[in-house]
Amino acid sequence: MDISLVLFLRVCVQLLVLPVYLLSFLGIWEPFCKKIFFPFFIEKLTASYNRRASGHKQELFCNLQEFAGPSGELTLLEIGTGTGANFQFYPPGCKITCTDTTLNFQDGLSRSMAQNQHLQFQSFLVTPGEDLNQVADSSMDAVVCTLVLCSVQSIEGVLKEVLRVLRTGGAFYFLEHVAADPSSWSYFWQQVYYPTWKLLFDGCHLTRETWKNLEQAKFSEIKLRHIQVPLYWTPVQSHIIGYAINCQAVQLSLPTHCPVLLLVLCLGAAPRSLLLAGQGKEEGY
Ligand SMILES: C[S@@+](CC[C@H](N)C(=O)[O-])C[C@H]1O[C@@H](n2cnc3c(N)ncnc32)[C@H](O)[C@@H]1O
Question: Least buried of 23, 147, 183, 267, by fewest C-beta within 10 Å?
Answer without folding.
Answer: 183
